[in-house]
Amino acid sequence: MKKIPDEIVACLKENEEYLILLHQKPDGDAIGSAIALGKGLKQLNKSVDYYIETPIEDKLLFFEEIDCFNRQLKESYDVILFLDCSSSGFAYSPQTMPKAKVKLVIDHHKSNAHYGDLNCVEITGATAEIVYRILKALAVEIDEEMADAVFTAITTDTGSFQFSNVTNDTHIIAGELYKVKPSYANLSKRLHNQKNMDQMKMTGAAIHSLEILDSMPIALMVLDYDTIVKYGGTINISDDVANVGQNTIGVAITALLKEVRPGDYRVSLRAKFPFDIHKIALKYGGGGHERAAGFNFRGDIQEIKDDLMEVYQTQCEQDETI
Amino acid sequence: MKKIPDEIVACLKENEEYLILLHQKPDGDAIGSAIALGKGLKQLNKSVDYYIETPIEDKLLFFEEIDCFNRQLKESYDVILFLDCSSSGFAYSPQTMPKAKVKLVIDHHKSNAHYGDLNCVEITGATAEIVYRILKALAVEIDEEMADAVFTAITTDTGSFQFSNVTNDTHIIAGELYKVKPSYANLSKRLHNQKNMDQMKMTGAAIHSLEILDSMPIALMVLDYDTIVKYGGTINISDDVANVGQNTIGVAITALLKEVRPGDYRVSLRAKFPFDIHKIALKYGGGGHERAAGFNFRGDIQEIKDDLMEVYQTQCEQDETI
Questions:
Q1: Which of A188, B36, B44, B204 is least crowded, fewest Cβ atoms below 10 Å from its Cβ?
Q2: Whether A156 and A121 share a structural domain
Q3: How far apart are CA B217 and CA A118, in angstroms?
């Protein structure tokens, strides 16, 4: 495993009072990294506060350490830790930021702006991989909850070890967690497969709506307002719904349209290389990147269909190998 | 990683002519183990024949080594290798079995009967984990196709590293494969997520049919004959359809009824601990085990509903902790 720079380890050994911040809408990697590092620092008799946006996804609510989140903050800390945040603007922060001797950034995003006084930024599968290596460098003993936290972070941010961000180190770390607990099968099920009935039915409705545009490898799915209301609102549209289109063999571009209010759509686009759907999102004031982007839309859905077909056809004209 | 016994390594070093056999309906672990070990032995200038049941699942057909399967067999071999077969009866074998000096069994099933002259049987996530360690003991160089083969075997037999059969060694081996190829993301997608349009629509229809019996944690799904025909027949009912019920939070027992001919149902049952649905399957002349069983049925579906509710209620009466 790659070594953590000495100055990072020294900073965590020398200081006593920590505040942990995460990105907005914290995911498995953010929550897992916070809990593993927070508990590790407490084991070394440091004081640790957490300032974290709620609500936290149901599937992550099993950690006992969550009871320690969002207690009264101090006016100043030795170290403010920014975990899994590519920029300070993306962090969920208190309105009045406490003072700190050091801002320490620990993150795995390529786009990280190195906005800390100290930055431990590496391109890994999950931020928790860096956290795990820090804990090892600090000679902290990994307990079962910390092991669950690191496993949760890695398995959610790597799509159960399937994404291109997985490396040898990812598997070495995951493997070592089996020395703490013999099985992560129940946790994996909880994180990856389980849906409540409304989420399940919403996924079914998305599959039912799946249509292919004009014999092109473009999938369109529409969840209309009535369907969304019927199954408990947008909170029950699980992350993997947009994948329904992309996981269909032969599909290169997917658009998922969620009618969040009558006539108002939130649109999620997904594309495979070399198709660039970011430009569609930009046209409507949205954002994202070439292969995953989104925007808000009110109007005739045909307009979006035309945009999708144009992106596909233009790329095909430029690139005869498609 | 655990050491392979010396006598196994010696057998593979000393002998020259090999025949590889797998279990019937070979899966990712069987095919992957065969290709990795077969190519490894060829690298050591051994001759290797494969006798393997076809058709092989579409998602596994990308291996070039498959071109070497099922060529003319010899009358005798030095070693017949039984890979991933818990018993010799479960192996897919030629009508006239060639002679062999040694029958060598390499397998990871708990129930393995140790039916070989030599047996390398260990409880691992996949048989290919044992194969990988054998290849290392033989100092074989793992090429990209062999790495894909081992990865395919492990990821399919462990449900993408989610099942309780995963160990530290599983991850160590998976990690080492990243030294051969930087990413297994495309392969993972191919193996786990992709469905053709008919498979996707069939899954959607199964979700649409999902109902809960009488406020009990019992899920019922019915794919009627017209739906099955509409989406290309039972071949397009993918393995994970029965999971739709079991992955719904709160569900303990699932029945999937596939109307394969008008009025004729193939029934798949799934249960969580401590519910035993095997007895229902036995009642109708089917088989399986306590948590997964199946049978054929012609009659009023209400009869099956009653059986499911009885299993649930009887267990609840016996066990007050439910």
A1: B44
A2: yes
A3: 52
CATH number of the domain enclosing A256: 3.10.310.30
Residues in chain A with CB shorter than 8 Å from the CB of B183 are: 164, 166
User: Degrees (nearest 5) of the Cα angle A179, A185, A187?
Assistant: 95
Per DSSP, the three-state class of A283 is helix
CB pairs under 8 A between A and B: 131
Q: Looking at A172, A193, A214, which one is the last position of a domain?
A: A193
3-class SS at B266? Answer: strand
Of B310, B308, B307, nearest in space to B254 by CA: B308
- Cβ separation A197–B247 shorter than 8 A: no
Burial class, B253, CB count within 10 angstroms (exposed 0-12 / middle 13-18 / buried 19+): buried
Q: Which residues of B touch A189 (CB under 8 A)?
A: 162, 247
Domain tally for chain A? 2
Cβ-based neighbours of A227, under 8 Å, separated by 6 or more:
A202, A205
- Nearest Cα of chain A lies from the Cα of B80 at a distance, in angstroms, of 33
Pairing mode of beta strands B292-298, B264-271: antiparallel
| Contacts (Cβ under 8 Å, ≥6 apart) of B41 | B12, B18, B48
Are the beta carbons of B178 and A168 separated by less than 8 Å? yes
| Predicted confidence (pLDDT) per residue in B45-56, tens digit | 999 999 999 988
For the CA atoms of chain B, what is the radius of gyration?
22
Identify the residue whose tokens are 């998305």: A206
CA distance B258 to B111: 30
What is the tens place of the pLDDT at every residue in B267-322? 999 998 899 999 999 999 988 788 888 899 999 999 999 999 999 999 999 887 66
H/E stretch holding B64 reads none
* Cβ count near A222 (within 10 Å): 18
